[in-house]
Each structure stands twice: as structure tokens, then as C-alpha cells.
Amino acid sequence: MKTATRFMHSAMALAIAMLFIQCKNNTGQTAQTTESPAKSNVTSSNRLPIAYVNLDSLLVKYDYAKELNEKLIRRQENARASFNEKARELDKEGAEFQRKYQNNAFLSQERLEQEQQRLLKKQQDLQTLGQRLESENMQEQVKMQMQMADSINNFIKEYNKNKKYEVILNNTSTLYIDPSYDITNEVVDMLNKRYHAKK
């Protein structure tokens, strides 16, 4: 569960960075063009041409984000189960070695040392496996975060072609935003429709 939360927060941070880049690019482009429809509407209604997305809610409600999170959790559970199985095998062999040692069951000192070396090698292999599995899980997590951030970023670009906002913010880096600027539910609904249409 801790990893899932870390995944969601990491994905959120990546999506935030991409959204800020998107907003900065859009602001530079809008400054060069004539007054957009959103600007004229904003002036007449005294509303700013901005919106925000609640990223926590988006990541909880976006089906693609949920699917990626579940996939990551399954992968981590499988890796943990595989590692734990090998660790149990090593523990059994270590206990058997200890029993033989205490009962003087080794035929020679050389045979005792060979068995010690074999168990040490197996322990080192297990540590290497643990590090490799952790590294693979981290790489997969980064890959999934990038996929999700890319999905959200591409959608926001398409979404804003019609909406003409100058800035689309996220709520995680602000102290207060008028709730009437919140477009989260609309964005989530459209993201989910697009995601299921692609499936």
C-alpha cells in the first residue's frame, strides 16, 4: 500500500511538472495571438482564463491510473513472493547445515567448508536477486509514471484547444483556489471515456 501511495505521489509530481511546462508554453503562445474567445468571455464575466485540476482526485478516479497502480502492485507482490520463497529455501538449508555441524555429520573438514561456501554463495545470490528485483520494480514504476503523465499531458493539450485557458494549474501547489475554477470531474470523465474508447 505504501508503494501504491508513493507511486501515486510520484506520478502526481511528474504530471504537475508536465502541466506547468504545458501552461508556460500555452501562455507564451497566447500572448502573441489576438484576444482569444476565452479572454473576451472572461473580461465580460470578470473571470480569469484559468482552471485547475485536483490531481489527488484525478489519480484516484482515472481508470488508467488505477490500472497501472494495480499492475505495479501485482508485479511487486510477485517479486516479493519469489524472493521470500528463495529465502525460505536458504533458511532450511542453513538450519540443516547447523544440525549436521552440531552432530558432526560432515565426513571431513573439506566437506564442511564446501557446504559453507555453497551456502554463502547462495546467500550472496539471494541478495543480488533482491537488489535486481527492487531495481526492476523502480524502473517499471518510472515507466508507468511516464506513461500516465504522458496520457494526462496529451489530453490536457487536446482539451485546452477548445477551452482556451491560459493556465491550467494543479491544486497541490496552491493555498486557495475558488472551487468554481475546478475542472477535475470534467477532465476525469473525458479521460476515462478516451481511455475506454482506446481499449
TrEMBL record:
PANTHER family: CHAPERONE PROTEIN SKP (PTHR35089). This is Membrane protein. One of its GO terms (cellular component) is cytosol. It comes from the Bacteria. Residues 1-17 form the signal peptide. Belongs to the Skp family. Residues 73-132 form a coiled coil. InterPro entries: Chaperone_Skp, Skp_dom_sf. One of its GO terms (molecular function) is unfolded protein binding. GO terms for biological process: protein stabilization. Pfam families: OmpH (PF03938). Keywords: Coiled coil, Signal.
